[in-house]
Amino acid sequence: MKKNPLRNEGVQSLLASLICIVLGLLLGYVVLLFINPAGAFNAIMAVIKNFFTYSRANLQLKNLGNTLVKTAPLLMCALSVLFCYKVGLFNIGAAGQYVVGSCISLYAALAMGLPWWGCMILAILVGAVYGALVGFLKAYCNVNEVIAGIMLNWIGLYTTNMILSNVKDVASPYTLHLKDYAPAAILPTLGLDKLFNGNSYVSLAIPLSVLIAIALKVLLDMTRFGFELKATGYNKFAAQYSGMAEKRNVILTLAIGGALAALGGAMLYLTDYEQWTCTASSVPGMGFNGIAAAFLGGLNPVGTIFASYFIQHITSGGAYVDKALYSAQISDLISAIIIYLCGFVGFMKLSMKKYFNKRDEQKGAKK
Q1: What's the pLDDT at 1?
Q2: Which residue range is the domain that position 164 belongs to?
Q3: Which residues contact 22 (CB under 8 A, 6 or more apart)?
Q4: In this structure, is residue 6 part of a structural domain?
Q5: What is the DSSP letter of 141?
Q6: Rounded to whole angstroms, what are the CA distances from 215 to 60, 79, 175, 194, 306?
Q7: For residue 221, what are the contacts with CB-CB under 8 A and spacing of at least 6?
Q8: DSSP string covering 264-318, please?
Q9: How many domains in the chain?
Q10: Which residues pair with 277 in a beta bridge?
Q11: Has residue 1 been placed in a domain?
């Protein structure tokens, strides 16, 4: 009997993701219609088109490069959430770990004068420690990782503001430009800037983030270590009974998750694409968007690569909405609606499974 391709796990994940994307865009369009119907269609198309808004190919390439620059850190945050989720842990602290990585990489560059690779290594190590702290509280103090992660997000934010105030511009709240004060800390372009019309922000971070996603896929699906981690997530008591170090695995998992998210922060700020705002009063959305990207990608590292790009694409596309018709916050609102709907991928996938199972039962009853 020929198997229905719609019963395939990968196909269901893809369909669920596409359904959520379409629903998000439709809901965003409805919101635009309520606010100002005259420009609703052009606004939603601007979000979808992003850099294709430009008619010249060189400008399209340059702005595609800008989207990819921010896709790399988003992908790292998504991988952080995904990796921990595979082990039964919800790493909402990825946002704070991303902040800590940004802080350490910038401070190492501007205050310590370290080269880019030194800044990245330091960010990874500090991010791992920050994540391991959540793991320790979970393993030995029975503190839920969500609560510990949220608290550490805010601790990380305000600590970062204090630390980076020592390397900020005197006349503004922004940290100093790396190109002026620490050029050795800027990530190498590897010649990729030439592919994107001289966009110097396009760097090593983009291919490195993709390679890390593939490496995580191999680690989780093809190694004993990955099997142990997933077994701990499925049933920590059974894993403990079979001789696996359950507490160690929890701490190690969150340490790796913290290292990934922190590396994401380094990948953005070591390009000098933007500077940290030392008066920031809210945790950057990059870590939280990583949650949506992980689920939109079907909790698959390879699928998360494409999901991260899509989310960053619509987020960047929101900047092209006509501000004469809509307020400056409308682009964030539309992006937020679409990202919110992306969180329902699991629900859509479960609904499809239930539908096909019910249909199979009906066919069996008829026979």
Answers
A1: 47
A2: 12-366
A3: none
A4: no
A5: H
A6: 31, 11, 33, 27, 16
A7: none
A8: HHHHHHTTTSS--BTT--S--THHHHHHHHHHHTTT-HHHHHHHHHHHHHHHHHG
A9: 1
A10: 174
A11: no
**CATH code where residue 101 lies:** 1.10.3470
Nearest Cα residue to 60 out of 191, 199, 188, 268: 199
Asked if 98 and 286 touch (Cβ cutoff 8 Å), the reply is yes
Q: Is residue 29 part of a domain?
A: yes
pTM of the model: 0.90
For residue 324, the 8-state DSSP code is: T
Token code pair at residue 177: 């430009």
pLDDT at 139: 87
Residue 131: other Cβ atoms inside 10 A? 33
Per the listing, tokens 């005197």 go with 170
**What is the mean pLDDT, run by run of 10 residues, along the chain of 367 residues?**
64 79 85 87 86 84 92 96 90 95 97 96 97 93 92 95 92 92 95 89 95 94 83 67 76 95 97 93 89 86 92 85 77 74 75 76 68
Q: Report which residue type is found at 192.
A: L
* Residues belonging to the chain: 367
Question: What is the reported pLDDT for 305?
Answer: 94
Which distant-in-sequence residues (6+ apart) come within 8 Å of 291 by Cβ?
A: 78, 81, 92, 94, 343
DSSP string, 51-94: GGGSSSHHHHHHHHHHHHHHHHHHHHHHHHHHHHHHTT---TTH
Burial status of residue 140 (CB atoms within 10 A of its CB: 0-12, 13-18, 19 or more): exposed
Exposed e or buried b per residue across 51-84, where buried means at least 16 C-beta atoms within 10 angstroms of its C-beta = beebeeeeebbbbbbbbbbbbbbbbbbbbbbbbb
Which alpha helices (DSSP H) does the chain contain, by range? 9-35, 40-49, 57-86, 94-110, 116-141, 145-164, 178-181, 192-195, 205-222, 224-234, 236-241, 246-269, 286-296, 301-317, 330-342, 345-366
**Which distant-in-sequence residues (6+ apart) come within 8 Å of 192 by Cβ?**
202, 203, 206, 207
CA angle 299–52–206, rounded 5-degree value: 45
Residue 4 lies in a domain: no
